[in-house]
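Practice set, problem 2.
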Amino acid sequence: MRIKWRRRALPTAPLALALLAATGCESTPDARPEPTAAPSTSAARVCAKPAAGPAKAPAGAVTVDPAVPGDLAAKTKSSPPNTTFWLRPGKHRLRPDRYAQVIPKEGNSYLGAPGAVLDGRKTNQYAFGGAARDVTIRHLTVQGFVAPHDEGVVNHDSADGWVIEHATIQNNSGAGLMAGARQQVRASCLRGNGQYGMNAYKAAGRISDLVVEGNEIADNNKDDWERRRPGCGCTGGVKFWAVNGADIRGNWVHDNRGAGLWADTNNNDFRIEDNLLEANDGAALIYETSYNAVIRKNTIRRNNWVEGRRHADRGDNFPFATVYLSESGGEPRIRARTDKIEIYRNVLENNWSGITLWENADRFCNSPANTSSGDCTLLVKNTDRCAQPAIATAPLYADCRWKTQRVDIHGNRFVLDKSVVDCTVKCDRMAVLANYGTYPDWSPYRGERVAEAITRKQHNRWHDNVYLGPWKFVAHDPGRVLDFRQWQGTPYRQDAGSTFRARDGG
């Protein structure tokens, strides 16, 4: 399922601490003590206070002069692999050719002095490209490049083993940064880029062992691509495609036009922890047609106000959520550090709705409704097998579709004050549901089969959570809205051991 994003100004909302003393408590008779919530996550304020680079050239480094256009690319070409380049303070330029990018050699390092900027002047498309491995970029600002749609400025060709540290990559078109295998992005500012802060996509093969740690990822998708190409699914603070193994921790992801973090199509083995995700126009996190993840100890606040309200104003009754799992679940047959999706010890505060587990009954391998065109699940090697009559029988009936299964949601704190979020309807949902299968006519998943499976048969559980505010719950299909006791009761039996404190939030 693709979501279209739109932008408006986000007001700053106070924390809803008053809800902690709310009256009108409802809970299970044998309610356990409230679980320990995540500690308050501090913001990685990298953009405002970037770490300064070396004021003098390191021993053996090649010095690059900002007064000479193209000096960086020329000296890279004439130097051997494993060379360190030190860029003097000032604004460095490439030659006035859109393809004048730097092509590093294996093991090269690029260090910026305080005030060193590589500026594309809205002329050059790319800053660093090529296939060289193990390149390092530190303490350098990269700005003003005009990469085309779906292309990136730094590591344009998704080479492996790059390290990006204490860098500022800002105000570029396309993606500020691409990713390769074993890439590390640490303590950097990815800000104000036209499409993505980073696009973790590799045309040939999957990306593995990606680390994104301690970065500020803000105000990306400035060019509003979902409006320009409706339904493209091509925006966000960071977008991950077919990444096998990623640690996303300690980042401040905020004020992006669209989703903050979006993992789309056959990602696996993610750990998303200790992040501060706030004030993104769309969902804080989308995990779509992907597998096996741990989402823990994140602070998630004031997200999805733009997109949630837009859909509500249109009369859409789908529970557009702040944490959105779409056809994603745990799969023991795919190797990872976990065999489920576990969401725990997070604080979700004053977002537009909470967590939605969704499965599109019409989306599966070879279906015209599969928006990941040409892709199949990681369980099927030959996509052509997912056709009648074989798809209607085991094992293909199970393996030809991405399933939202084995999701364990526990120990979280969900806070909602409607006077802060400024809504009257549809911002208060927690959901597990599917649509009525209708398409194509040869689909073996028509009718309520998938809705029944995701709701009652695929081991999706909420338990031992704390709810503060007027929460509602959606099960099976969008029209089935439940109160807390119905949610806990037969046949759903969700949120055993959880506590619920309701009040009229406005």
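Problem 2, part (b): a different protein.
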Amino acid sequence: MNDPINNPIKKTINNPDKSPMHKAQAQLWQSLVNQGVVDNSTAPAIQLSSPWYIIGAQILGGWIAALFVLAFVIACIASVNDMEQSILAMGSIITLSCLTYYRVGENNQEFILQMVFAFSISGQLMMLWGIHDTLKHIDDGLIALMYAVLFAVHWWLIPHKANQFIAAIAMVPCLLAILVIYQLSQLILPLLIVSLMLVWSQLYRWPQSYQRLRMLGYAISLNLLFTHFALSDIGRWMDLPQILMTFDARFSHYLAVAMVLLSALWLINQVFNQLSTQPIELTNTAQLSRVKFIAILSAILISLLSIPMAGISTALLMLLLGYFYNEFKLLALAIGALVSFIGLYYYSLHINLFDKSLWLMASGVVLLLIRLTMALSIGKTIANKEQRHDVQ
């Protein structure tokens, strides 16, 4: 494949006259030059991407190659007497090598990237093992801090998206574990909500860190949902580790609900501020204020419902964030979480099925009434605009 004579892709690139795609690109670029839209008379080179099955084979091959090399390295370490120190040293060497490649390496082939990714994950695991064995007799808080620093360095320095996400989703529990160790677990839910709002609200203000903040935002979202899941009755039935059950504090839960409500009100205000400044159908200030009032009232009612149903208001806050910042994956995650939390609460109720069905019917009627009220308000707004247009 490296021979340009036998490579049909390179033949096409080296002979643009034989490629219809190159001809169309040249004609389009020439028309842009004639119109004065662009200054450069030479069209940019076409970046050809490999088919998905080629990329999949490269990913699989990279991980297999990395695992074979790592198996050989671990087998060599197993013969050393001071195994803990050897694992820490080897993990540090592998991690630093991967960091160096990510920062200065120029080969972007998927096979190489996946192989380095596998080495990076393995090096981090070796370092975690070595740090734990070295500091296990000193302080658990120090171990959690070292873990958090290790993942923070990888999250900040590595440009690889998957590696950033794994580092971020592991860094957040390490920071939360520090609060649990020092008996500050009541701050976990409020801090997660504050962090969620801060990260997503700063997403577009730091374009050079957009990918890092986005991965951190998803990591915080998943950890926040998992925390609410641990607080639910299903979480208690599953006999989760005791460290997770330390989240269960009424004060922390009420404070989290209040902070979610304040965050949702801020987002609603931001959305309606944008609507009021754009030339769209909602130009009537009175009607817009009415719709805004209904949205605020709905947020308050949902927050009250989230007191017995942990996680409902948080899922709706994530739904608002996904809509406001145009994050489809966050929207899908929030919808899945909302359905899951409602289902968990429904099946955890210690009442018969008839009473459950009555509660479901009542909830459906309330939601339909809210939807009908909003639709009538918007309809009146559009009708008033049409009347003013006809008068003019």
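Answer key, part (b): The longest helix spans residues 353-391. The chain has two domains: 58-183, 188-278+290-348.
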